[in-house]
Amino acid sequence: MTEMQTAQGADEVEMGPIDYLVIEFPGNRMTGEGWPILVDLVDRGIIRILDLAFIRKEEDGSVSGLTLQDLGEDGVELTAFEGASSGLLGDDDLAEAAAAVEPGCSAGVLLFENTWAAPFAAAMRRSGGELVAFGRIPINALMAALETEDDE
């Protein structure tokens, strides 16, 4: 937090919810197809990337970090993500992410702010509202539920 944010108090900071993703790439194969879409989300102010890291899990279970240069070897343009490191994503977090990744795969670990929600979240805090529950429905579960509805 900056000094200004500290002086204002945590309740007055206009910040959106923070989420993380661990995206596994089987066989260490990243095509880069999603990167321009991620850049667009940032450019339009929908999200703000706080941290972006990449890991590789070998067949023996050992894990190593990957640099953007390591990933760019496959023709994937990642220069837009250079410097995306707030320091919030630590070694323990990367180890936890690696536990979710299958051997022989790579993964991207993304920590981001949902900036689109910041004004709403700040207004709710100012009016005394408190977030008491939050969840996500995986798209596969949603599609399965919709298919079940169609079958009835």
Structural summary, described in words:
The chain has a 4-stranded antiparallel sheet with strand order 1-4-2-3. Strand 2 and strand 3 form a beta hairpin. The chain has 152 residues and is of the alpha+beta class.
Counting H and I runs of at least 4 residues, what is the number of helices? 6
Q: pLDDT average, as an integer?
A: 82
SSE topology string: HEHEEHHEHH
Helix content: 25-40%
Structural class assignment = alpha+beta
Q: Give the overall shape.
A: globular
Distance between the termini: 52 Å
Indicate the proportion of strand residues: 15-25%
What order do the strands of the largest sheet run in, or round the barrel if closed?
1-4-2-3
Largest sheet: 4 strands, antiparallel
- Total strands: the figure is 4
Integer-rounded radius of gyration: 18 Å
Brief account:
With 152 residues, this protein is of the alpha+beta class. The protein has helices at residues 3-8, 35-43, 68-72, 91-99, 118-126, 139-151; strands at residues 18-26, 48-57, 63-66, 105-113.
